[in-house]
Amino acid sequence: xxxxxxxxxxxxxxxxxxxxxxxxxxxxxxxxxxxxxxxxxxxxxxxxxxxxxxxxxxxxxxxxxxxxxxxxxxxxxxxxxxxxxxxxxxxxxxxxxxxxxxxxxxxxxxxxxxxxxxxxxxxxxxxxxxxxxxxxxxxxxxxxxxxxxxxxxxxxxxxxxxxxxxxxxxxxxxxxxxxxxxxxxxxxxxxxxxxxxxxxxxxxxxxxxxxxxxxxxxxxxxxxxxxxxxxxxxxxxxxxxxxxxxxxxxxxxxxxxxxxxxxxxxxxxxxxxxxxxxxxxxxxxxxxxxxxxxxxxxxxxxxxxxxxxxxxxxxxxxxxxxxxxxxxxxxxxxxxxxxxxxxxxxxxxxxxxxxxxxxxxxxxxxxxxxxxxxxxxxxxxxxxxxxxxxxxxxxxxxxxxxxxxxxxxxxxxxxxxxxxxxxxxxxxxxxxxxxxxxxxxxxxxxxxxxxxxxxxxxxxxxxxxxxxxxxxxxxxxxxxxxxxxxxxxxx
Length: 491
What we know:
By secondary structure, the chain is α+β, with helices and mostly antiparallel strands. Helix content is 45%, strand content 21%.
């Protein structure tokens, strides 16, 4: 009996609040809220906002946009499959709502909960969990969409409140399944000695101008000089030799007792790491590529983060991994190539090659999707020897350190100095393409090793390391040098 009384009281309050909104004059809202409410149909408004955030927000913006869209998808699925059928509440009567506010096409579903409010709250909460700055920008729009459902007369306030609660719950559930960047702890790594560089004094840096997408915040060389005015900063264009410029900068840094700096993508950083090792100088990394995996594992998201670490002199010792070709005739090792993140052989180098070829025309994300579809349709497994045994594989992946797996792929390292290679293999046959697609959805770790020997590689097969693609030798060895490189990292 008491429960029925409480429900009647709440229902009366709900209808009273609805009538107050309907009968109050909202001059500034009349030209905006009905249009905004229609724009949010089927999530179109939010997918447009997500595309905008991804386009201008860099890596952090892309993560926030993806999390917002994923949270929206979960909330929408729950509302439409469970919520609408569980409580079959009729829509409000529109008599008190001015005609100018009413939607031209009235919804045909039940009223509780509000799907628009759930989608708005899920998207805004998902974005905010990944990036509070972008979340603050999206929040007013989300509130406006939610309120527009009451303003246009298609929902009671309790419908909207329940929808928003469900949307925020969906965002939290997605975060539980796929942790945000801030939830993933910075990989533990031993401290190392490196000189503090006040104002950048003693830093000799090279900016690779051809790395990554066009800068949104101004030329990186100017930003680096502004953050570290006493640093010597050289710009490497398409006509310059990056390796030669890094060698010169590292020699100057060694003579001055300073450090080598690199602004570029993971390939540029790997090249700089090899040079820094040869000259025995610490390395300062500034992210200037498309993905910047190594910089992100150092918690360096921009030039200012790198400058802060250089001025404070805070540094760590990290592992490096090496790819060493083996001479076909003598069996002797040739000159090694350093990589800091990942090595792969099989279909992934082809995917990188096609993605790079198409990205300038259609953008990085669409190019990646098109490249994956093309590789899945046209490529075949490769036959190789792995530690003396013959295998047919779609892909062999070796990570410099053990990686965390969240969903489809390795996303971040557990440590930067664990002395291990994270080796993952996608077997080739039977049902080769089905196995590749399954692996893309689930991922699999084969082993954690310290050394890996790969042989029997046919001519024409390519390998990739840190995003760089090259022809594979007939035989090669991958191993580690533990805590070999000193790099700056902000506290």
